[in-house]
Design a protein that fits this description.
The chain is α+β, with helices and mostly antiparallel strands. The chain is built from eight helices and 19 strands.
């Protein structure tokens, strides 16, 4: 049985700041790609970049920690829920600049895959690798999302970052200190918020872009399982793949409750229906232990653990 800790949030102060926009005791599973997670003590939905900035500044002023939830992929939210304010980022404006040096600017809550498809329709390439990738632009900046030999860092022109003490600034890829599925932001949770970003694109024949995207989607369907999951669970160790290691350690298809390590790709953990975060977390620990025992390799999570564990 999951034990839920009583809220420690200053609800009266939060209601005074946000009014009825602040919703209490909201189930988070509906907002995640894995359909897993307990309740947020307080949920605040924002629909524009300015609302996101205002919410972050207000919560910092109140000295209240918060978590920004975008598309809900790459996170596992605990069954006990979240004692922080969860900001549901629905800020999704997208603007394209066409011409000799095309680009796209979008608010951080815009879906990365949707941006890629819109670019393709305009004959603008560079984001073909992002087709089918769940999650938002903001999440992609934080985690340097990537696939098929490319990543967000290669396209980023600038990111609009609201820093807790430095205010809003435009950061370059160098400023963000990107690495493999990593950025400065990922290691400094709570210190800054991605408001938006501009990505560099290139003019290409639309037929060529569509052909490449179709090929990537076909490969994705062939190699990655359908259904509710968080995406890739672990980062690939240098020169190897987490999925191969987990499979070699005999964990492929392993199931606890209705949580399962995929029998198609062992770096995907599935919710077969009604799975608990605790069961997924137990599978994570078992997979790590099995791989370490056989190979001496410590698998590093690609997803983030959110809430009380």
């Amino acid at each position: 049985m999951t034990t839920v800790t009583a809220s420690v949030l200053p609800i009266d102060a939060l209601l005074a700041a946000f009014g009825q926009r602040l919703r209490q005791q909201q189930p988070l599973a509906r907002y995640t790609s894995a359909r897993i997670g307990g309740k947020a003590d307080a949920l605040l939905e924002v629909t524009t970049q300015s609302e996101l900035a205002e919410a972050a500044r207000t919560l910092w002023d109140l000295n209240q920690p918060f978590f920004v939830l975008g598309g809900g992929s790459n996170v596992l939210i605990s069954d006990a829920g979240v004692r922080q304010v969860v900001i549901l980022n629905q800020a999704g404006e997208v603007r394209f600049a066409e011409g000799e040096h095309p680009s796209v600017w979008a608010e951080s809550g815009a879906g990365l895959g949707a941006i890629a498809r819109q670019a393709a329709a305009k004959g603008l390439g560079g984001l073909e690798w992002a087709t089918g990738i769940p999650g938002t632009l903001g999440g992609a900046v934080v985690g340097n999302a990537g696939a098929h030999g490319s990543d967000l860092a290669t396209l980023l022109d600038l990111a609009e970052i609201l820093h807790r003490t430095q205010g809003m600034k435009e950061w370059s890829a160098e400023d963000l200190d990107f690495g493999y599925r990593q950025s400065w932001l990922k290691g400094q949770a709570g210190e800054a918020v991605v408001l938006g970003a501009r990505l560099k694109l290139e003019n290409k024949p639309a037929s060529q872009i569509r052909s490449q995207m179709d090929a990537f989607l076909a490969y994705r369907r062939l190699t990655q399982p359908p259904g509710a999951s968080m995406g890739s669970m672990f980062k690939n160790p240098p020169g190897d793949s987490a999925g191969r290691l987990i499979e070699a350690a005999g964990m492929k298809g392993k199931r606890i409750g209705t949580a399962q390590i995929s029998s198609l790709h062992a770096n995907f953990f599935l919710n077969l229906g009604g799975a608990r975060a605790a069961d997924v977390h137990a599978l994570i620990q078992e997979a790590r232990l099995a791989v370490h025992k056989l190979f001496g390799i410590e698998l590093e999570l690609e997803i983030g653990l959110v809430g009380e564990w």
